[in-house]
């Protein structure tokens, strides 16, 4: 687990989650684009640089042990920021790609009272397998359930390219609908064309959310 930001006096915290093949140092580099000097960031690092070995659309039984282990790392990161004196409602979850999927799932399961979620190219993993067979809209995978409870009063930024090879738009829409139903204020940005990466709008959103 790596840390960035001021050692004292931080007013906002963020848990940053790297993508598959990335690292804690990589994702902490995002803060250099945000110009938010009073933000403390914690970045857990996955063993082998991957939170799970397959795509996030895999069956629930396959995903569950990996997701449980990854969520424990997020819980520890949140607790570290709270121990530094940052109020829970000033702590954000954020990530890219596989890290964005983990951030979404963490906000849905653990995020009550947090400031919100910033997810670049990611979506919810889900709480279990739903009825229905493989779907072209889910890249040949079967649907999932999204049985989350509680209230999420924070803000949510979701972004994805309209032709993302890893993140289907349908899952992003399901994620937006789920968080809206839980009470969050959701913004969704579909970047035109093919791609799997951050755009200028994403960096602007990161700065805007952390500057509040």
Automatic annotation (TrEMBL):
Belongs to the AB hydrolase superfamily. AB hydrolase 2 family. Residues 8-211 form the Phospholipase/carboxylesterase/thioesterase domain. Coiled coil: none annotated. It comes from the Bacteria. This is Phospholipase. Keywords: Hydrolase. One of its GO terms (molecular function) is hydrolase activity.
């Amino acid at each position: 687990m790596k840390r960035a930001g001021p050692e004292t006096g931080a007013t906002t915290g963020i848990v940053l989650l790297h993508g598959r093949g990335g690292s804690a140092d990589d994702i902490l580099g995002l803060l250099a684009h945000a110009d938010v000097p009073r933000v403390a960031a914690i970045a857990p690092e996955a063993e082998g640089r991957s939170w799970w070995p397959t795509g996030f659309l895999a069956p629930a039984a396959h995903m569950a042990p990996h997701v449980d282990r990854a969520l424990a790392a997020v819980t520890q990161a949140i607790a570290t920021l709270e121990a530094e004196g940052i109020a829970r409602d000033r702590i954000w979850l954020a990530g890219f790609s596989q890290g964005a999927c983990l951030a979404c799932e963490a906000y849905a399961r653990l995020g009550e009272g947090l400031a919100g979620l910033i997810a670049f190219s990611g979506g919810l993993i889900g709480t279990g397998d739903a009825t229905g067979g493989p779907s072209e809209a889910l890249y040949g995978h079967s649907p999932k359930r999204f049985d989350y409870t509680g209230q999420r009063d924070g803000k949510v930024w979701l972004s994805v390219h309209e032709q993302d090879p890893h993140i289907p738009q349908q899952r992003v829409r399901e994620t937006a609908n789920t968080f809206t139903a839980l009470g969050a204020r959701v913004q969704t940005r579909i970047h035109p064309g093919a791609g799997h990466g951050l755009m200028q709008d994403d960096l602007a959103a990161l700065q805007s959310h952390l500057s509040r």
